[in-house]
């Protein structure tokens, strides 16, 4: 795909219409990024498997990083998220609790991933 896509035409790539980023509302971009981070954290916590403890994707160090990034994004964006803020916060808290439950040595309340942005999650 060496040809430049002009803004005057709809681009068709692999059967999908590509929207220009300028046309996508900020709340949608932020929400999509949050959902991607949530999905990544869930996989890294092994939540996609029947037994998370035996998941080949279990990686608490990586999960901590992704959850912290998610917490920062949601906290910084909460005023713009409107009705999306509640469900995103709930999803984040669920991941923070799952991280604590999965850890052999759980962090103290307030010291878990992202809790410097969200406050303690019990």
Q: What features would you highlight for this structure?
A:
single chain; 122 residues; mainly alpha; two-stranded antiparallel sheet; 4 helices; 2 strands; globular
Summarize the entry for a quick read.
The protein is mainly alpha-helical. It is built from four helices and two strands, in the order E-E-H-H-H-H.
Rg computed from alpha carbons, rounded to a whole number of angstroms: 18 Å
How would a textbook summarize the main sheet? 2 strands, antiparallel
Q: SSE order in H/E notation?
A: EEHHHH
Total beta strand runs: 2
Give the arrangement of secondary structure elements:
Elements: E1 11-13, E2 16-18, H1 26-44, H2 60-81, H3 85-102, H4 115-118
Antiparallel strand pairs: 1-2
Helix pairs in contact: 1-2, 1-3, 2-3
Write structural notes for this entry.
The chain is mainly alpha-helical. Helices cover 52% and strands 5% of the residues. The protein has helices spanning 26-44, 60-81, 85-102, 115-118; strands at 11-13, 16-18. The chain has a two-stranded antiparallel ribbon. Strand 1 (11-13) and strand 2 form a beta hairpin. Helix 1 packs antiparallel against helix 2 (60-81), helix 1 (26-44) packs parallel to helix 3 (85-102) and helix 2 runs antiparallel to helix 3. The model has no long low-confidence stretch (mean pLDDT 89).
